[in-house]
Amino acid sequence: MEKLLILGGKPIGSTEIVEKARQKGIYTIVADYLPENESPAKAIADEQWNISVDQVDELAKRAAAEKVNGVVAGVHEFCLRKAIQVCEKCGLPSWCTLEQWDNCSNKKAFKALCMKNGIDVARTYKLEDDIDFPVIVKPADSDGSRGFSICHNYDELKKGVQHALEFSTDYLIEEFIQSDACIIHYTVVDGKVVFSGISDKHSRRLEGGSMVMALQTFPAKDQERYLNEVNDKAIQMFKSIGIKNSPIWIEAFNDGKRFVFNEMALRFGGSMTNYPVMYNTGMDQLELFIDAALGRLPEVKINAEIEQKDNYAILPIHLKEGKILRIKGAEGLLAEPKIEQSVLVHHVGDEVKRWGTAQQVFCYLHRTYKNDKEFADNIKKIKATLSVENENGQNMLYFLMDFENFFA
Question: What's this model's pTM, rounded to 2 decimal places?
């Protein structure tokens, strides 16, 4: 029986990897430093290792001794990079190389790759430049909106740089593009790159924090324009760095005139965007990810067609500060036929801080809907049904958008 090592049992996607791998008859091992009651994937895996994810040498030594066949991780980029390092130390197959990963995850390297392939990116400044404000400052190699600042003058810029350096050893200063983003999906199967959908990402500011996703809707309003103007360049870019088998996730800004690529990762999105890809194309990126990690010939059948089904939305529901004592109403809500998936981020016993980032998401609800009214009506039902209570019996949930007015 093949053995799959999953690094990190708590990040989004970890339990889904364990469940899918076991369905495929693969023996699963989860490694992290957490006890099983704090590591959901660890609790359901066939075997547990109490080794921290950053102990690459120890993990590689144990993986070799136990004859592990592949190593993966959930959507947490720190864990994913460590998984690739373990693979390289052990001579194991992987869904990508460390060079490919760094080309995509490092924001400076990614900008250079885009420019080489004729894809628009935001204008970059140096601290000593004559800067046209507002600008954004962000870490060169961090994710989840951490270390991100919008700056309107040089005093704010200096503070923004210091904030970015709390999360990285390097930073970027870029023009601020006043537009919502879109999320673009590709699936690479045996070297063939397949466009797998595009969504509009609507963002709002968390109280005291960063701009974060408040809603993601498929299909994007400018999907055809993207396919006509950018798709071929993007496919060529992915081929140029030799990607063979991997999901691809891209965030781009769409100001109505151009698509400005902002960041990319060789994974599915943190809200488990493999689910809408599966809904719209039938291609299972999670299965592809596992097959690639084991060096298997992918079982995923290529489908270059986007099926025009119902609209698809990913709704993040956020949490106020506090410790989760109980969760009410989740089972009945998830039994509804148009709730496709629920990606749980926090559990009973978790303590939520006022981080001001995507860490404050309680869950990502994946829902299909025929029209805007149906979606808005469903939000009312969610608000009336679902609650996450703190130790004082107060509901910690809140929504970043007024959906009735948004869809009006």
Answer: 0.91
